[in-house]
Design goal:
With about 280 residues, the chain is α/β, with parallel strands linked by helices. The chain has ten helices and eight strands. Strands 1-2-3-4-5-6-7-8 form an eight-stranded parallel beta barrel, surrounded by four helices. Helix 2 links the parallel strand 2 and strand 3. Helix 4 packs parallel to helix 5 and helix 8 runs antiparallel to helix 9. It is globular and about 50 Å long. The two termini are about 15 Å apart. The chain binds flavin-adenine dinucleotide (FAD).
């Protein structure tokens, strides 16, 4: 399968029911038509299981598209991580999004990995260059970081441990991305930093996610969304305008690709691809 001239990728989360899995087959087919470089599947987020991630990763590979498995290490032992990575390698997976992840509230910080940088170093030590490793980047700072400078240093550490590229948390402020890329380049990091793009389709869901992830919704966007109330058509039209302009600005700033948080739906991401000529 040929890939899109401007690199794009799509993110999914594991489906929870057989009906959901069946519906998602069509979502993937619709999105494959845009020739993504790869499709990634989240791990552990929202209580999803490792089996769910591996099953969707396998399905994507069998459909002839490179799959990236998100992989979080918090709370895990080296032995367990080694076994799971061997399983992914044996499935033919060559791409990972390597993460620390978050423990459910109430759990202490157990396990043998403390940060994503520990996981990246472990993968390189055990599997050499087999995996292409992406790591997470936070242009608006990770919510638990001690300071912006400490967060930048943590990012540099995980890149030096062996990451090939980074995907950002979503954001609606292109200046934060531009500044982040400048800052890490100043610190000697030259890997591609691909913006994560969250389509806007549902106002309450977006507010909920943003509170949890620390991604800022600018006041003017928040107020417009609130004013639309239940008018889904207006929210979608406004969201498409706002996010398409953001993507255009990011491309003008030299973003090396775009990674779409599809939320397991195709319509909003396809509308954005149409608008952007992707
Ligand atoms: P790290 O890079 O380890 O950073 C975590 C925190 O520790 C930061 O505040 C950092 O500043 C700090 N830190 C790092 N190293 C050090 C150090 N040496 N000393 C002191 N402080 C340090 N979550 C899921 O559960 N499943 C997923 O599939 C998933 N996919 C994601 C994909 C992307 C592209 C992004 C951006 C996020 C994703 N997340 C996912 C969320 C992620 O797991 C959380 O944001 C998590 O809290 C941090 O993971 P990390 O890999 O960024 O951690």
């Amino acid at each position: 399968m040929s890939t899109s001239a401007f690199p794009i990728s799509f993110e999914f989360f594991p489906t929870k029911t057989p009906e959901g899995a069946a519906r998602h087959v069509q979502v993937r087919q619709d999105l494959y038509a845009r020739a993504p470089q790869f499709c990634s599947v989240t791990y552990g987020a929202g209580g999803s299981t490792q089996e769910g991630t591996f099953a969707m990763v396998q399905a994507i590979q069998q459909e002839g598209v490179p799959a990236a498995a998100h992989f979080s290490c918090i709370g895990a032992t080296r032995e367990k991580v080694r076994m799971q990575l061997q399983q992914l390698r044996d499935m033919g997976v060559c791409r990972l999004v390597a993460l620390r992840g978050d423990l459910p509230s109430g759990y202490g910080l157990g396990g043998e990995f403390h940060y994503a940088s520990d996981l990246v170093a472990f993968i390189r030590q055990e599997f050499g260059d087999h995996f292409h490793i992406e790591v997470a980047a936070y242009p608006e700072m990770h919510p638990q970081a001690r300071s912006p400078e400490a967060d930048l240093q943590a990012f540099v550490t995980k890149v030096r441990a062996g990451a090939n590229a980074a995907i950002t948390q979503y954001f609606y402020n292109a200046d934060a991305y531009a500044r982040f890329v400048d800052d890490v380049q100043r610190l000697g990091v030259g890997i591609p930093v691909v913006p994560g793009i969250m389509p806007i389709t549902n106002s309450s869901q977006l507010m909920r996610f943003s509170d949890a992830t620390g991604a800022e919704i600018p006041r003017w966007i928040r107020l417009r969304l609130q004013a639309y109330g239940d008018d889904t058509a207006s929210i979608r039209a406004f969201g498409l305008d706002v996010v398409a302009s953001l993507c255009e600005r990011l491309r003008a700033l030299g973003a090396p690709g775009l990674h779409f948080y599809t939320m397991n739906q195709s319509a909003a991401t396809l509308a954005l691809c149409d608008r952007l000529g992707l």
